[in-house]
Amino acid sequence: MGGAQNFWKQHKPGVSKACKDNLKRSEKAATHQRSQTSIQAFFTKPPNAPIPPTIPTPSRVIAYAVESGSSGPGTTPIVLPVAPPVPNTRTVSVLATLEKATRALPILPEANESDEIAAFSQPIPTELAKEDAWEYLDPLLNHFLGFNRSVESISEALRGGKKGLAAMVQYLNDFVYRYEIDEGLLEGKVERLVRAIQIR
């Protein structure tokens, strides 16, 4: 009664309706299981996949300390304005007396290159050391004013124009202010020049 032949005879696997229904359900379940496995494999990322950063990493900022007084690339040296030297009050007074005397002068003959006074129509030197400045100016004044020259002779040598007395006064002003000439050196010579101007 038992055995495989009896089983095939009674149940006819693969032929009966119940068996066919069971086979279809089994195949459908297997197909669904395979499709789920492939879908999960598509959407699942590998566990060790690197995640790219979404925020850029800022670059390092290097600060440099600049020592006081240094001037290198990227630093701008600060240059403070320097006020020109001013002679003492007595020297200023001597020069003011000379300028006042020249304003009262009548028109003088115009100077030319051959006149002694024309030596003062050039720009003052700017490269002299302060201690050597008087040694430069003194011979120039002596050439025109002279040690033994009379005031009358100086007065006769006075000239006007661009190379004349106005140029001489400007030269003395520029020179004295630049090199801070002491009034003790300048006063006697300027007094002789003022007296020569007053004679005219």
Describe this structure in words.
- With 200 residues, this protein is an all-alpha fold.
- It has two domains: 4-43; 89-199, no CATH class.
- It has helices spanning 4-11, 17-43, 89-103, 133-145, 151-157, 165-179, 183-199.
- Helix 3 (89-103) packs antiparallel against helix 6 and helix 3 (89-103) runs parallel beside helix 7 (183-199).
- The termini are far apart.
- Residues 77-84 have low confidence and may be disordered.
Give the helices and strands, then pairings.
Layout: H1 4-11, H2 17-43, H3 89-103, H4 133-145, H5 151-157, H6 165-179, H7 183-199
Helix pairs in contact: 3-6, 3-7, 4-7, 5-7
- The general outline is rod-shaped
User: How many β-strand runs?
Assistant: 0
Rg, rounded, reads: 57 Å
| N to C succession of SSEs | HHHHHHH
Number of domains: 2
User: What are the low-pLDDT stretches, counting only 5+ consecutive residues below 50?
Assistant: 77-84
Give a nutshell description of this structure.
This protein has helices at 4-11, 17-43, 89-103, 133-145, 151-157, 165-179, 183-199. By secondary structure, the protein is mainly α.
Tags for this model:
mainly alpha; 2 domains; rod-shaped; 7 helices; 200 residues; single chain
